[in-house]
Amino acid sequence: MGLWTTARSLAEQTPPERNRYVDFLRALSILIVVMGHWLIATAWYHDGELIRGHLLKDRPDTQWLTWLFQVMPVFFIVGGYSNAVSLASAERKGQGYAEWLIARLTRLAVPVIVLMLVWAGIALVMRLLDVTPAAIQYMSQASLIPTWFLAIYIMVALLAPLAWRFWQRAGYGSVIAFAALAVVVDVLFFAFDLRAFGWSNYFWVWLAVHQLGFAWQRGRLPATPWLLALAAAGFAALWLLIFEGPYPLAMVGSPDEGLSNTLPPKITLIALACLQFGVLMALEAPARRALENLRLWTFTVLVNSMIMTIYLWHITVMIVLGGVLYLAGGYGFGLEPGTGEWWLSRPLWIAVLWALLLPLALLLSPLERRGRPGDAPIPGAARQVGGAMAICLGIALLALFGFGDEPADWIDVAAFVFAVGGALTAGLLVPLKRKASSGG
Question: Taking Cα atoms as reference points, which of 229, 270, 251 lies closest to residue 68?
């Protein structure tokens, strides 16, 4: 049976109570992220030398595009909705924290561990072939940098039951509380130069956004005019923070030296989340009607069935293609990034990358569609939390440094041990069984 036929069969079996818009936004946000990454990473031959670049740094006039391509708030909103559904279901079934958590960790962590194992093997082979350590580190770090998102998303998943209880007691007050903590951290960051506190905003910013997903799932949305007012307020706050305040324009990466809206996160991301939340929720009713179309819904189901694989491997595919083109004498790198000719060539560039990524996604995506055997033991909550934290530490270190000698020749080994050891501790590396899924 073909993959489209399988997806169509699953689409036809979708229960009527399922909110298809959640799955659509999840798929859309990841596809946007993938194409955004493929655009901003640049390389071109100039005077016989391959120059690696970053579009947002090399062409600052393109930084406004990141207001469109920064859709991680959407993914956390969708994650909040999905976690609310699963937590409410767990409460009805009488499931404990450990039983709920193991299912989330299996879906999130197993595919990223596979990516790390593959890159550890690639790095080892390149070392044996006398590839320079700097080249190995650059390629592996670039390929693994998308995993930073999984590190913080897993941490938010660990805290989701507590955040859920907070929502049940405080409602929108929980959103305001997390946002207020983020504001305090940014004040300490900018006004008092206490920059170490800024890293805690990985929690406060994304938990605030995650709570919006709870509001959506519980049906606590205001009327459309108020949603549009929220979007307008988010846009106004974003404009003021950037053009009248100390925040940089780019909502992705770190093109401004020493300052970033994402590393660590800033309250600009909460403002952007309010803008996106207001607009997307105002569009929910017509979007859900459109998703009654079987072809559109089947496409959404299909993308969701391989969404983690697409996200994790899209940079690796680009790096491998770039390496092949480099060895072929720099074929395809003759256009200066940001020029008119370069922009005209981007549709072809993206089409080629999709042509390479999709077969790989079809091959590896069964990993994210497999569940634990029913008789597999469920580790205790403490083991799962400890293992997950070790995985997140390993992910973060490899996303920052890749496999290489900098800043120390033992960090990549330690990161790898943390990630794999954490997965073993949490009981995630067990034989899995195939399961049908429409992407929930």
Answer: 251
